[in-house]
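Structure first, sequence second, as always.
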């Protein structure tokens, strides 16, 4: 199945052993999108690296860069101004919404629900307009800099964001009206791709794929970064660890992200948006690991500095790579049609898996 199958969400190949329509065994074959980003950045200055991070999970470029710049800031001992922290939180949650909307639209499309795709991309377009106004790009945004933001948010943009947060919960209700009680959707997702909490933890699953199995783990709450320590939000979890539970978790996460954005808007402080950092970044020799809660799960950066302007080693811990590892556990014994549903529920991006 693949590597050019329309339901593989990227260039993924699955070697399936079948008995009729029943899956007896599965092997995921990756590497078709390998670009060697971790090696490439060893020859780049620290300031030149964020655009490469944009392209790892290209549906969550804002989150990717946040994790990287915070890792460098931690290595350097840089304190980011409060306004920048709040704006980072706001933009990262908008990015979470944009990523989840791609997941919702494509996941529903995989299973045969076309209307939801059009609805989800209607709202995602409004988020991308905000990114374009703030950063000059819609997808690979290059949103943040080491020390904060390049510039403050342009006038009028935050009003547009507030207007979006006013009506977005009603749009989530529309999606749920189309899917949650739909008997076809329920038949295709309930009891499909089940994984227990113990197995999810042992495979290293994170994000909604882990929380759908009932594990209440979220880096925003467990080890707060940016301005998340000041935010009040719930961590939704599932009970059965199936595709339907992971769907419900992400739907509630979108409501919680909207809630965080509102709080960031209401409490946004005045002041500078960038700390004073050298023109040439040279962190002290040492190593650092920093992780954030990206839309797909825990995204970690391990950086080894030798004191020069370029990292000696940069290692990315991508959530999709570990989430995909559990696919065999989730689909053996299921039908071929269920394989498509499970790939969608994991919300993988192959650019992140292959790097």
């Amino acid at each position: 199945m693949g590597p050019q199958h329309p339901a593989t969400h990227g260039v993924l190949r699955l070697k399936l052993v079948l008995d009729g329509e029943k899956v007896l065994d599965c092997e995921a074959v990756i590497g078709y999108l390998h670009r060697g980003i971790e090696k490439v950045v060893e020859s780049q200055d620290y300031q030149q690296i964020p655009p490469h991070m944009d392209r790892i999970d290209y549906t969550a470029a804002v989150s990717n860069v946040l994790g990287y710049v915070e890792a460098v800031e931690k290595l350097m001992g840089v304190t980011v101004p409060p306004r920048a922290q709040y704006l980072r939180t706001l933009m990262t949650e908008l990015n979470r919404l944009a990523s989840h909307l791609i997941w919702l639209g494509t996941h529903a499309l995989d299973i045969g629900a076309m209307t939801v795709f059009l609805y989800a991309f209607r709202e995602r377009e409004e988020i991308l307009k905000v990114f374009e106004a703030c950063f000059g790009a819609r997808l690979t945004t290059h949103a943040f800099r080491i020390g904060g933001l390049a510039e403050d948010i342009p006038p009028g943009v935050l009003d547009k964001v507030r207007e979006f947060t006013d009506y977005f919960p009603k749009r989530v209700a529309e999606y749920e009206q189309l899917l949650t009680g739909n008997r076809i959707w329920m038949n295709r997702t309930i009891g499909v791709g089940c994984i227990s909490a113990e197995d999810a933890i042992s495979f290293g699953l994170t994000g909604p794929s882990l929380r759908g199995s009932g594990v209440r783990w979220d880096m925003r709450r467990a080890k707060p970064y940016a301005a998340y320590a000041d935010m009040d939000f719930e961590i939704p979890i599932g009970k059965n660890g199936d595709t339907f539970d992971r769907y419900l978790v992400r739907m509630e996460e979108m409501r919680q992200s909207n809630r965080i954005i509102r709080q960031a808007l209401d409490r946004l402080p005045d002041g500078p948006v960038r700390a004073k950092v050298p023109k040439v970044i040279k962190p002290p020799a040492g190593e650092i690991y920093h992780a954030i809660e990206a839309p797909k799960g825990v995204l970690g950066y391990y950086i080894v500095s030798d004191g020069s302007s370029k990292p000696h080693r940069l290692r990315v811990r991508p959530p999709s790579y570990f989430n995909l590892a559990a696919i065999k556990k989730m689909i053996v014994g299921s039908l071929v049609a269920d394989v498509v549903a499970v790939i969608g529920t994991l919300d993988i991006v192959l650019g992140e898996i292959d790097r």
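Margin note: The two ends are 22 Å apart (CA to CA).
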